[in-house]
Specification:
This protein is α+β, with helices and mostly antiparallel strands. Helices cover 29% and strands 19% of the residues. 6% of the residues are buried.
Length: 69
């Protein structure tokens, strides 16, 4: 099955991946090329700029992972 990229809000930078058949997997991308796994990669594999953008657009997840440095 193929993945579909979408934005939660029209002006967002972050694309989420609708990966049918993968329950509980939260994938996102900034460029539709490199895909990050929210639970595995955030914030460790994001650049400082990507983290700032992600946090601004996704305050729930920023708070959820607030203990991760």
């Amino acid at each position: 099955m193929s993945s579909k990229f979408y934005k939660k809000n029209k002006r967002d930078v972050v694309f989420w991946v609708d990966n049918h058949g993968k329950i509980g997997e939260h994938l996102f991308s900034f460029d539709k090329s490199r895909v990050f796994n929210l639970f595995k990669d955030y914030p460790y594999k994001l650049t400082p700029e990507q983290k700032l953008t992600f946090d601004k657009e996704n305050p729930y997840w920023k708070d959820f992972f607030s203990e991760r440095k």
